[in-house]
Structures are given as C-alpha cells and as structure tokens.
Specification:
Layout (H helix, E strand, L loop, with lengths): L1 H36 L1
Keywords: Membrane, Transmembrane, Transmembrane helix
Length: 38
C-alpha cells in the first residue's frame, strides 16, 4: 500500500511534464499539418 501511494505521488509529480510534452507534440504536428495543406 505504501509503494502504491509512492507511485501515485511520483505520478502526480510526473503528470505536468507529460502534459506539456503532449501539448508541444500536438502543436507541432498541427502546425506541420497546416503547412502541408497550404
């Protein structure tokens, strides 16, 4: 149970970095898609 709580704590610390990376990847792919269709 303690290890599970530790995993959750590390996961919540990890999530903001994961979301920022996901947003960067999404914006880059969106920009490439728009540029390809111009």
């Amino acid at each position: 149970m303690k290890t599970f709580r530790l995993f959750i704590h590390q996961h919540t610390n990890f999530m903001p970095a994961f979301w920022s990376i996901l947003i960067v990847v999404f914006e880059t792919s969106l920009a490439l898609y728009i540029l390809r269709n111009l």
